[in-house]
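User: Hey, my collaborator sent me this sequence without any context and asked if I could get a structure. I don't really work with proteins. Can you help?
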Amino acid sequence: MTRCPASIDFHANLAIQSAQARKCDQAIIIDRSIAIPRLFPDSVYRSHTGIDLLADLHHHIRIEKVHLGQDGLDAPLQRAFSEYEARNPQYGRQWLENLTAHALDNCDQAILYIARSGPDNFVACPLKISSPHKRGSALSTFYTSSYCPIVNSEDPEDLFQALFRHLARTERISSLTLAPMAADTPEFRLMRDALSRAGWKGRHEFFCFGNWIHDIDAHSYQSYLASRPSKLRNTLARKTKKFLADDRGSLEIVQGGDKLEGAIERYVTVYNNSWKVEEPYPDFVPGLLRLAAARGWLRLGIASYDRQPVASQIWLVCERTAYIFKLAYHEDYKALSPGTVLTAHMMQWAIEEDGIDRIDYLSGDDAYKSDWMSVRREQHGLAAYNPRTPHGLVQLTAHTLKLLVKKLRPA
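Assistant: No problem. I've predicted the 3D structure and written it out in structure-token form, which is a compact way to encode the shape of the chain:
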């Protein structure tokens, strides 16, 4: 039986010492985990603490499995999540915990898988594991415009390889879909390469959606407007004047405090009277608004006409970037363009009061976004299949046949 390295913690050593091991079809079964020396030359152990541990003979890599929203995180993980949250609130622990609490189905589990070779040397992937068939995906929903694993290592290649190998051979995840991600980031390249090295098959990249941004050169709203098309400038002047005429229209930005709950109610009223489909997870957005207010990110814009809320927008301002998260307007007031008027008001506030350096319109290639923004980026995804599982093999076969048909189809 393969020996466990000395670096495995005390609980793992206890589990190893007490395990009743037996040989079966060239596999060594220790407790409830299986090590297959011929195919997977690592030792896999399960400690009595509930954390799954994988001891790599060459790199002393340990795999940990944390249930988000239920289990705590150690100090190095908390620090790493905070650093990634500064890049984008959607990468942070609290965002993911709100998503876990309010935007998962009964068949889903939110699990943070960590590959660690030392207390401060690790990578971590927040994943959603869905039944049946144990399908794995990024811990995201249609609310998510960007996903990213946590990398806190100078040599993360082996860590990602060990993690994905563990998901395939020990967890027996049938498929992995990791999206949406910026394809030009180191994290995307690391996961793409590690999937193939870890034995996942049919790995491919796919397009998710466009992402429009604008960098602010001078912290002046007038300078920003001067850089936009004249048609937009003229429309804003005309529509704003009409909306505010005779004091019938008003604009407000709520950041928290005593006004928060009332503003949430007005947002919900506008959304329910908009063109948008009903929220499948109605508690997610209110939970996010309360979280954002507590963290100082929230800019909840409300446009009212004759004292009735007619448009609402959720912006999140974090580390000098304004993320335009959600927009809605009341269909009965469409002719007044309350959404356009409110966007201009919030843009001015973000530039001149918050002093932002970037505006991010998040997901979507809506035509109007090119008027407000200047740079289009793309979000992509990664997918791969585990042929060691029946469902993974079926998916891989279907993917391969699809590629074959596409190749044989006449141009």
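In plain terms: The first strand starts at residue 22 and ends at 24. You can pass these tokens on to your collaborator as they are.
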